[in-house]
Amino acid sequence: MTPREHAERVLASDQIGCIWSDDVTSWKELIAKEIEAAVAEAVKPGVYLELFHGRKRVGTDEKGAAVYEELSDWGEPGPVFGPFPYFHTTYVCDIKFDDDKELRIVDDLVYYAGVYYGDWSVFGSAVFLLSGELQQRHTVYVAEDAGFRGCVGTDFEPNDA
């Protein structure tokens, strides 16, 4: 139930007739408290990680360096992970979160599920709650889709390469 639906239910209920108490002095205050309680229930604490501007690796050049697909646009939107207590980047090597989860950073790109993402963003629960687009891209992290653990150089070959 959305906060708005909850507030409408309270307005339509018999609770409006008995709203005078020590804590609540007006119907507006009651509605505000009901909406606040519904939002607090809907928003889980923590932060989210969004990957975007994705492209695929298409091979290597004559020197063995990775070659990524040429983009005529911004690239593909990626997954949104969360909520987690934190995201931590180490030496532009990886992004760690939730004690045992990590994503590889290869050639300045974040790798997940066969796609290399040029951008990533961290945001709070309120941003996630207000964006239907981010909610649609919400993804359960799968370790196998993250590739190998540990720092890697440009010779990184994920399981699906």
Counting copies of identical and different chains, the oligomeric state is single chain
Strand content: 25-35%
| Major sheet description | 7 strands, antiparallel
Helix content: 10-25%
Mean pLDDT: 80
Structural class: alpha+beta
The SSE order reads HHEEEEEEEEEHH
| Total helical segments | 4
User: Strand tally, please?
Assistant: 9
Number of domains: 2
| CA-CA gap between termini | 43 Å
Main β-sheet, spatial strand arrangement = 4-1-9-8-7-6-5
Overall geometric form:
elongated
Q: How large is the radius of gyration? A: 22 Å
Low-confidence stretches: 16-20
Topology, please?
Elements: H1 3-12, H2 27-42, E1 47-55, E2 57-60, E3 66-68, E4 80-84, E5 87-90, E6 94-97, E7 101-106, E8 109-112, E9 115-124, H3 125-130, H4 132-136
Antiparallel strand pairs: 1-4, 1-9, 2-3, 5-6, 6-7, 7-8, 8-9
Summarize the structure in words.
By secondary structure, the chain is of the alpha+beta class. It has 2 domains: 3-42, no CATH class; 47-146, no CATH class. It is built from 4 helices and 9 strands; from the N terminus they run H-H-E-E-E-E-E-E-E-E-E-H-H. Strands 4-1-9-8-7-6-5 form a 7-stranded antiparallel β-sheet. Strands 2-3 form a two-stranded antiparallel sheet.
